[in-house]
Fold:
Amino acid sequence: MADTKKAVAEVKQEAEKAVAEVKQETEKVAAEAKKEVQKAEAEIKKTVKTAKKKAAKVPAKAKAAAKKAAAAPAKAKAAVEKTAKKAVTGETSPVVYVQYQGDEEKVEDLVAAATAAFRAEHSHTKVTGLKLYIKPEERAAYYVVNDKFAGRVDF
Structure:
């Protein structure tokens, strides 16, 4: 019993050290990402300023494009901040597996296979929704895309 408690305490200490190291590294990565964002913002602002000057000389279509370019830094900044926040907070996406009779498949791989199969048949249709029904006893996944198209992928 004492050995178990000691082992648990050791594992706990090692885990705490690992968490501290990961936290330090993610904070470092987040700081670097923030610097990159600031550099990108400065370059984008400079480019936008130049584009606005040139846009004054061009027709309305070009002005609309310049406005769109002016909105790009905010979108880029938001994306980088979201990524940095995930790095700092440790938010991750789960990896989901389906296991059946000794075999194992990643759900992510089945989704990719279903999407690829759909795109092979309907290359000009945009995928706005995907439902995946996994039947391990048949070693198959059935999919429905956009609540309209259906198909099967074997795994």
